[in-house]
Design goal:
This protein is mostly helical. 78% of the residues lie in helices and 5% in strands. Helix 2 packs antiparallel against helix 3, helix 2 runs antiparallel to helix 5 and helix 4 packs antiparallel against helix 5.
């Protein structure tokens, strides 16, 4: 069948072209939105991975300083622990899995409070000696463990959210295609069959 000049200059006047455009545009928009949200959530996951690495390193250095019995053995207080705590509280540039990463201040209240306790304990540790130092080490270690737990919970929730987004994308695409097939059947195929 020869197309009319109107259809040649206006290709989206036909039902087939319109429905194709609607379905392609809808699916493309759905995929783009899912990928954008996944990218934003993945940025949070990278932040949490960097935070966990700093917390683990600070905990390891503090444990080495405290010794097996939990009391400092008189060695020099590791300054890196204090630097890590400041970076975790105030933000800064850190080395991540994929290069340098700009670490943001903690947005989670639980993590922020735990880090504040760790900083206060660290300051007390710098001024303490003997049994007071052992108590300060334990307080800093407990605060670091609490902050690490808060970050792990948030990271696990974000990972679950990304997985859920991809599952939702699959289901939504399937539903969208089924609705599209039904729409084509009702608006194109059925009227065409009746006209024959």
């Amino acid at each position: 069948m020869i197309e009319s000049p109107v259809e040649l200059f206006h290709p989206f006047r036909s039902i087939r072209a319109r429905t194709g455009l609607i379905f392609f545009g809808g699916l493309a928009l759905l995929v783009a939105i899912t990928l954008l949200i996944s990218f934003l959530i993945s940025a949070g996951i990278r932040q949490d991975a960097a935070r966990l690495a700093l917390l683990a390193e600070a905990g390891t250095q503090l444990a080495a300083y405290a010794g097996p019995d939990g009391a400092p053995d008189g060695s020099t207080l590791p300054a890196e622990v204090g630097l890590h705590l400041v970076t975790l509280m105030e933000g800064g540039v850190v080395e991540g899995e994929a290069g340098q990463l700009r670490l943001r201040r903690p947005g989670d209240e639980t993590e922020r409070l735990a880090l504040q306790r760790a900083v206060a304990g660290w300051q007390a540790l710098a001024a303490a000696d003997g049994e007071a130092a052992a108590g300060s080490v334990a307080a800093v270690q407990a605060a670091l463990a609490e902050a690490e737990q808060a970050v792990r919970v948030r990271r696990d929730q974000n990972i679950g959210m990304v997985r859920g987004m991809y599952a939702a994308l699959f289901v939504a695409s399937l539903i969208f295609l089924l609705i599209g097939l039904w729409f084509i059947q009702q608006t194109i195929v059925a009227p065409w069959k009746r006209s024959i």
